[in-house]
Amino acid sequence: MADQSTTTTTESMIMAALSTLTSSQLTSLSASLSAAFRRHNHHLASLLTSPTLFAHTLNHLYSLSLSEKSLLIARHLLSFLHLLTPFLFPLSSSSPVYIPSSNRVRLRDLDSVLLLLFFCEVRQHQPTILENVSPARWQGILKTYGSDTILGNLYTGFALSLSPYQVLGALVDLVVKCRRFVGSKGCDGVEAGKEVAASVDAVVALPSVESGGGVECVICKEEMSQGRDVCELPCQHKFHWKCVLPWLSKRNTCPCCRFLLPTDDVYGEIQRLWDAIVKLGLQI
Ligand SMILES: [Zn+2]
Ligand SMILES: [Zn+2]
């Protein structure tokens, strides 16, 4: 499938998913996105105005391999995708919303990814701006470029002045970028269908339940006797703890229905959230 048509399909799928949200849900989503954009603009402004922080971040970027840089971008995009989590997995007492801890972007990584994405943006708009220029002068040049765009926008309240629909448009764009990391050939992510472990945080939070007796655990084929050695997944399938723990340490799927649990694997988590977006979009 051509890139353009993949993008169009992805866009219509996310639009379909967003159209299932109520107007108050859209307002709350748009507010959390605006807050994230504002926070990132603030970080980027600090980076571009501090020669020390800029040099430190640039050195860190130099030390990363291509796949580490891809992972950094994927994790950053995933942090936006996670803003959709409450709408993709509506809260119920048995399935709280998890944001796997290792998917959170650390401060140094945030600086690095914002600088990396800023480089990409600058290169797109002014491809020759850093040509034949020593890296020692990059900070000054980028600061001037930034003050006309990002920094100027920051101080004039850019994020506040965006309409909710512009913010949601930006979200669609981010999800399209995120989607490119999974599920298509030749992308930077992992191969499709690769098994990843369930997030430890999510597994620890699974509830112990009464089996009710007479029900077979599909992993060991033995009856689950009364007691608290049985655990229930959010899809309501039950297993012995001793059977399901080794299973979930290798894969994040329910052995019965393939329900996906959160994972600390960035690409696996993007795939999980994307599957949920598709499922929500197909409801209309
Ligand atoms: Zn069992
Ligand atoms: Zn299940």
TrEMBL record:
Keywords: Metal-binding, Zinc, Zinc-finger. The lineage of its organism: Eukaryota, Viridiplantae, Streptophyta, Embryophyta, Tracheophyta. This is E3 ubiquitin-protein ligase SGR9, amyloplastic. InterPro entries: E3_ubiquitin-ligase_domain, Znf_RING, Znf_RING/FYVE/PHD. GO terms for molecular function: ubiquitin protein ligase activity; zinc ion binding. Transmembrane segments: none annotated. The gene is LOC110793995. The keyword Cell cycle does not apply. Residues 217-258 form the RING-type domain. GO terms for biological process: ubiquitin-dependent protein catabolic process. Pfam families: zf-RING_2.
